[in-house]
């Protein structure tokens, strides 16, 4: 999507049924480095040409530090993709081989390709498969347009760049569920606008139970608001991975 399609709202809305979040890590719990590799939950990040590489930086970095394995998923495992920033990524596995039961979360990022045709439609279809299986999906920027065209947003509270951006997507019937917010969680679906990678990460961390609520609040204040008073809270909770 274009750089002009941005949002100015700062509110984040969460609509998550009780009991769906994983327990937050407690102070003194086993550190990520102490966990056997095979026991680490896996988060999958969809990668494709023109992938907006800056949109998941906070999310993947902090998930990795807190015991998650991050694996990339492409159309084909042996076919490198080039991000919008010019980085080449060799996907870890092919989309056809991705199984919801083997994943804790699927992340779909923005990309120019979401706005130029249906080349990425298989990724939206995989998101539908994940949601049907009760596995969370997090979509930001142009990926929300792909979900809109697939009808995934029609019955779920969601957000994106702006109402008119999704309103112009063929097949979209979810206008009544659109909210003006930086990021939204509705059950297993997280959505965010293109200017909100930090709010997007916060919703992911909340959904997966990565931080205790007061620590998550401090994390957001530090990385979104540059609030230095939040840093001691993070250090007290996890001095190795604040």
Structure characterization notes:
This protein is an alpha/beta fold. 27% of the residues lie in helices and 15% in strands. The strands form two sheets. The protein has an eight-stranded mixed sheet with strand order 1-9-10-8-7-2-3-6, with helices on both faces. A two-stranded antiparallel ribbon has the order 4-5. Strand 7, helix 2 and strand 8 form a beta-alpha-beta unit. Helix 1 packs parallel to helix 5 and helix 6 crosses helix 7. The chain is globular and about 50 Å long.
Which spans have pLDDT < 50 for at least 5 consecutive residues?
A: 1-11, 14-29
What is the succession of H and E elements?
Answer: EEHEEEEEHEHHEEHHH
Mean pLDDT: 87
Order of strands across the main sheet: 1-9-10-8-7-2-3-6
From the alpha-carbon coordinates, what is the Rg to the nearest angstrom?
A: 17 Å
The span between the termini is: 32 Å
Given the structure, what is the number of helices? 7
Count of DSSP E strands? Answer: 10
Overall, the morphology is globular
Strand content: 5-15%
Q: Residue share in helices?
A: 25-40%
Task: Give a short account of the largest sheet.
Answer: 8 strands, mixed
- Structural class estimated from helices and strands: alpha/beta
Salient structural properties:
eight-stranded mixed sheet, 242 residues, alpha/beta, globular, 10 strands, disordered N terminus, 7 helices
């Amino acid at each position: 999507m274009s750089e002009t399609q941005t949002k100015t709202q700062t509110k984040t809305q969460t609509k998550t049924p009780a009991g769906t979040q994983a327990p937050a890590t407690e102070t003194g719990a086993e550190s990520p480095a102490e966990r056997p590799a095979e026991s680490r939950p896996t988060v999958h990040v969809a990668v494709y040409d023109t992938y907006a590489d800056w949109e998941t930086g906070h999310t993947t970095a902090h998930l990795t530090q807190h015991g998650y394995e991050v694996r990339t998923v492409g159309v084909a495992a042996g076919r490198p993709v080039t991000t919008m920033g010019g980085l080449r990524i060799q996907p870890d596995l092919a989309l056809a081989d991705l199984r919801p039961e083997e994943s804790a979360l699927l992340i779909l990022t923005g990309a120019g390709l979401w706005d130029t045709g249906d080349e990425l439609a298989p990724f939206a279809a995989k998101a539908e498969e994940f949601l049907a299986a009760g596995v969370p999906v997090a979509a930001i920027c142009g990926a929300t347009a792909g979900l809109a065209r697939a009808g995934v947003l029609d019955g779920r509270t969601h957000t994106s760049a702006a109402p008119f951006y999704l309103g112009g997507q063929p097949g979209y019937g979810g206008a009544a569920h659109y909210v003006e917010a930086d990021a939204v969680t509705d059950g297993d679906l997280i959505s965010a606008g293109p200017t909100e990678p930090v709010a997007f990460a916060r919703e992911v961390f909340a959904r997966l139970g990565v931080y205790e609520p007061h620590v998550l609040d401090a994390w957001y204040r530090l990385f979104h608001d540059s609030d230095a008073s939040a840093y001691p809270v993070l250090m007290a909770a996890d001095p190795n991975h604040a």
